[in-house]
Amino acid sequence: MSSANNLEIKDVYAAYDSADVLQGVSLKVEAGKITCLLGSNGAGKSTLIRVILGLTQPRQGKIEIGGKNLVGLQTHNIIASGIACIPEGRKMFPKMTVVENLRLGAFQETSEAIVLERMDRVFDIFPRLFERKTQLAGTMSGGEQAMVSIGRGLMSNPKILLIDEPSLGLSPLFVRENFNIIKRINEQGTTVFLVEQNVHQTLAIAHYGYVLSQGRVVAEGTPDQLSQNDELHEAYFG
Amino acid sequence: MVGTFVGFTTYLGLSAVGIDNAFVQLVGVLVVAVGAMALLGAVIARYLVLPLKSAPPLNILLITLMLGTVLRESVRLFYPDGSNPKPFPYLLPTDSWAFGSFTLRADSIILFIGGLLVIIGVNVLINKTKMGLAIRAVAQDEETAKCMGINYTFTVLLTFALGSGVAAFAGVMNGLYYNEINFSMGLLLGVIGFSAAIIGGLGNIYGAILGGFLFAALQTVGAVALPFSSAYKDVFAFGGVIALMVWRPTGLIAEKSSERV
Fold it and tell me: How is chain B split into domains, by residue range?
């Protein structure tokens, strides 16, 4: 992986109406690594994801992938530059089948053969989804929906995968399983930007981390450095 | 209605330049009417519906109703002699076969098959193609659809173009069947279509078809079997719709449920 595929966020400010949410956030998601962003509720984590995806326009700042600025592009063009997202709360399409949900993940892929091949790969990771291929996603359990959502994120074979709170609302067993899968995805060459509240499990798989508090990056470092960092404890418990 | 008038104008144009083969005229009328209405639908979506997308749905409903009035009155005022009915040409074969007291007209069969083909076509398009997948995704969850890499604006415009094009096809079929068109032909039909969709079950194409036939059956019963004048057939049919809505508020064929139980 070359640095040409780094995702860089440079001095981003964002606000909803008059409420400032991000105040000069800069961070770097290095190609081939798992970079995590920790922070409590309301720190601005999900807003940062929305800004990267072009769903919320930043007031200022740049978002670059391999040096190309993404700010101002429409979401589908940002996706076309190799980003995929596993959104917070899973957000599968409830009235579609598992297969249709997965197909949507590979929407910009025009070759049917490649789509089917990737779908097989997803079914390898989640045999449960193969058994429930034609079930409507909205009728599945929370854990199964998480599988659909993760599988869908893999269908575009993204360079960079944004994962927003994968542990939200899942049982501890599923959380551990999901983190293992994220690790495996990364080992197969996908850059991961993981946004989480769950500190310990996140730091266990991440290569580098940032801590966001009230719209600012208050700490960064390797997992070892972060787990001893006072700012991190402050951001959560202070 | 606008589609039918565009089709009618196309017919006049084709006749004026000397093309009088009925088949060529029919194809020309359909292509121009459907194409023009698809374009109009996309323009309406772009400049009236999309800017309002964060407004309450009631506002969008009101805007479309008002737009209907604007279009209707525009045809009445600006189309030459627009306030009078126009004779729509007979472009289909006028053969008919008699079976006892029952007469089967060739144009009825052709229109029935045409309608059936459009229904099947739209169904395949929505459920089996990638474009249909995008349309359904955008309908269910706009932001997640965008995150899948779907071009949101384009898909919305396409959806409106498709709907308007199908409506134009229906308008031309209506003109071909009754051979008379006028500026307010769409109003009652619109209300009937909406009622049919509601009693059949919104969100289900077969529900709308079932509702359509049911409404027609109610009208016919109202006209034939009941002791009052046939002018009251719509009163009877809409009364039936109200009763059905009370009985089955979500329609006869409820939407396939996806909520967890």
Answer: 2-182, 184-256
- Of residues B137, B151, B261, nearest to A104 (C-beta): B137
Tell me how far apart the alpha carbons of residues A148 and A165 are, in angstroms, rounded to a whole number.
15
Q: What are phi and psi of A105, to 5 degrees?
A: -60, -30
The CA–CA distances, whole Å, from A190 to A186, B58, B250 equal 5, 45, 46
Binary contact (A137, B137; C-beta < 8 A): no
The runs of H, that is alpha helices, within chain A are: 45-53, 75-80, 98-105, 112-125, 127-131, 142-154, 172-187, 199-205, 223-227, 230-237
Cα-based torsion angle of the residue sequence B52, A137, A141, A149 in order, rounded to the nearest 10 degrees: -80
Helices B152-178 and B22-44: crossing angle, nearest 10°? 140
Which tens digit of pLDDT belongs to each residue from B208-243?
Answer: 888 888 888 988 888 888 777 777 888 888 888 888
Task: List CB contacts (< 8 A) between B148 and chain A.
Answer: 79, 104-105, 107, 152
Neighbours of B61 (CB within 10 A): 10
Cβ-based contacts of B149 with chain A (< 8 Å):
75-76, 79-80, 107-108, 156
More confident call, B148 vs B187 = B148
Q: How do residues B128-178 score in pLDDT, each as one tens digit? A: 999 999 999 999 999 999 999 999 999 999 999 999 999 999 989 988 888
Q: What is the DSSP letter of A136?
A: B
Token pair 């996140």 is at which residue? A202
pLDDT at B255: 59
The tokens 């030459």 sit on which residue? B80
Dist CA A181 CA B75 (whole Å): 62
Q: What share of chain A is helix, strand, coil (3-state, %, to 5)?
A: 40, 25, 35
**Strands (E) located in B118-229:** 180-181
Binned at pLDDT 50, 70 and 90, residue B259 comes out as: very low
- B190-193 LR contacts (CB < 8 Å, sep 24+): B190/B68
Strand A160-164 relative to strand A83-86, pairing: parallel
- Cβ of A137 and B260 within 8 Å? no
Q: What pLDDT, on the 0 to 100 scale, is given for residue B101?
A: 80
pLDDT at A1: 46
Contact B146 A53 (CB under 8 A): yes
Q: Which one of B149, B257, B260 has the shortest CB-CB distance to A107?
A: B149
- With an 8 Å Cβ cutoff, is A121 touching chain B? no
Over the stretch A157-214, which tens digit does the pLDDT of each residue have? 999 999 998 888 788 888 888 899 999 999 988 999 999 888 888 999 999 999 998 8
B160 compared with B206, residue with greater pLDDT: B160
Interface pTM, i.e. ipTM: 0.88
Structure tokens at A95: 């009235």
